[in-house]
Write a structure and sequence with these properties.
140 residues; mainly alpha; 5 helices; globular
């Protein structure tokens, strides 16, 4: 695995850990920092647990040595980061979201760019003509 991909996984782990702990431990503090209105602490804490799960998967990928050990994590990160970037963009365009929404939007956009780059430039296996295929059979 390349040094750049390891750094990307480590950075993602740190960001997901920070937001995950904040959401889990103190949803009200996040609401005050972000200038959000009333929030549902149960849903926010559940999002915190999900973010901590992403942090853990990035930690496992960071520690991995072989491509096969991180492939599925990278595929999941591509899907998640791109979808979250699109979702946050739509929220910013179509709802009266606070400006703080730009912080997670920017973070997800940067991770989406990085993870897509590492996905596209990933090593190919013998049966793949175009790199990883998101778990689907390679086109022949």
């Amino acid at each position: 695995m390349s040094r750049g991909l390891k750094i990307t996984f480590f950075a993602h782990m740190l960001v997901a850990l920070a937001f995950g702990l904040l959401f889990l431990i103190s949803p009200d503090l996040y609401a005050r920092i972000a200038n959000y209105g009333p929030i549902d602490p149960i849903i926010t804490r559940a999002m915190g647990v999900a973010a901590l799960g992403l942090a853990f998967s990035s930690w496992l990928a960071f520690r991995a040595v072989q491509w096969d050990e991180i492939r599925i994590v990278l595929e999941m990160e591509v899907f998640y980061a791109v979808l979250m970037t699109a979702t946050l963009t739509l929220i910013m365009v179509f709802t009266p979201a606070p400006m703080f929404t730009l912080v997670p939007l920017t973070a997800h956009l940067l991770f989406a760019i990085a993870f897509v780059y590492w996905f596209v430039t990933a090593p190919r296996t013998a049966g793949e003509s175009h790199g990883p295929t998101l778990g689907m059979p390679s086109p022949r």
